Each structure stands twice: as structure tokens, then as C-alpha cells.
């Protein structure tokens, strides 16, 4: 697993493109796993700052319960219609494990609702010259590309 800063350091142009796709709108979609293993999708907000991809969840929310049970998630960039005649910024996805962004919280303090993503995969899908272009990055394997 990697921090977002690792992606930025390894493939800065790719990371900037992924970030633009995520920053195109406020609401992202996150997939979590329920206690019975079935999937759940929820709206979320994601922020890139200080080399981290972070998000927050309300205490008692279903998605937070899911993450406490199984921290694996996938997060999809906002789905926006591109302007006429444009292909837009593309479609981005992040996958990984959410960890408490405030692990030093102790004692009677309530659990933190802030999480950071330990990245296992980053994907950017675009259309170029009539071809679907899929770029993906994983820790240890670097950036790969497939066109079809």
C-alpha cells in the first residue's frame, strides 16, 4: 500500500490528472463492504492535502460501520457530463484501505471520523482518438496502460 504522496512522487502527471477528475465536483461515490460481505455504495467527499487522500464519516453512519468492519474501499470520481465537443477530464478511481487519520486519539475521546486512504490502485479512464485509454498505477508495479 502507498500514500497519495507516493503516487504523486512516482507519476506526477498521472496523479495530477486523477486529482483533476476528482476535483471536478464535490460528490464522489464510495463502495464499502457490509458485514455480510455484500457491497454498499454511498456518497462521500474526498480531499487531497499534505500528501494524503482523506475523507470523513459521520458517527453512526452505515458506511462508517462498514469501514470499521472491513476497511477496504473503492472511490469513484464525480460523474459529470463533459461539455459538448469535449471528452472531459476522464473517469478516476481509487482503491485501498481506510485507516484512522487520528490514531493518537486516546482515553475517553470519541473515535475519529477522519480517515486517510492507503492506496492499492489508482485508475484513470479517458477516450483518445476514438480509443478507450485505461491507465492504472499500483505500488511496486508503477504505471501501466491499456488501449482498446
UniProtKB/TrEMBL annotation:
Assigned keywords, A-Z: Oxidoreductase
UniProt-listed PANTHER family: HEME OXYGENASE HI_0854-RELATED (PTHR35176:SF6)
Protein's UniProt name: Pyridoxamine 5'-phosphate oxidase
Species name: Naasia aerilata
